[in-house]
Known about the structure:
The structure holds 2 protein chains of 2 kinds.
Chain A: E1 5-7, E2 10-13, E3 19-24, E4 31-38, E5 42-50, E6 53-57, E7 64-68, E8 74-78, E9 87-94, H1 98-101, E10 105-106, E11 110-114
Chain B: E1 3-5, E2 10-14, E3 19-21, E4 24-26, E5 32-39, E6 46-52, E7 60-61, E8 64-69, E9 74-79, E10 88-96, E11 102-103, E12 107-112
Parallel strand pairs in B: 2-12
Antiparallel strand pairs in B: 1-4, 3-9, 5-6, 5-10, 7-8, 8-9, 10-11, 10-12
Amino acid sequence: KAGVTQTPRYLIKTRGQQVTLSCSPISGHRSVSWYQQTPGQGLQFLFEYFSETQRNKGNFPGRFSGRQFSNSRSEMNVSTLELGDSALYLCASSVGQAANTGELFFGEGSRLTVL
Amino acid sequence: AQTVTQSQPEMSVQEAETVTLSCTYDTSENNYYLFWYKQPPSRQMILVIRQEAYKQQNATENRFSVNFQKAAKSFSLKISDSQLGDTAMYFCAFKAAGNKLTFGGGTRVLVKP
């Protein structure tokens, strides 16, 4: 069974641009969570989607948004990029709603660099 | 809000030796789950071990075991017979029912040959 797939793996953007990251969960998994990982802040929760609905949301500005499609694939978008948005963005999937079990299967991440 | 604290930023251990990673958390919840996740260099994060708060027995997975002290809100991870492949960042995580997973700051473990 294929794992969680994130694309692109690496990308470089400039301030003010926007970016879209994609995540394909493990087949059969209906929940997708997104995390931002930085050396200074560690792992911070962005949001979780289950059955195309946002179930939980972290403390990030409205520039960060996401969605989930009927096939459980998810995208997150960051608009008006700032230097501080440079990070590894991790996607994780779970069979049921992550809030119920907490056991997540992670992708390798998308490393975003904002210049 | 729940917080998870890992007080050891980095630890090193000789191959075949034992290392213990500390984790404390703060919560007013009674029912919750605790986890240790491992993130090897440039590789994806994987679940190492999981503990339900209502279970008194400490969880064990092969060479990995936990010491769960609910009253003290402590959840340490012991890695026995350390192997080179254990070199990674280790994250302690907490989850109360219906809420998101909250991670600690991580502990970098280096296993030396």
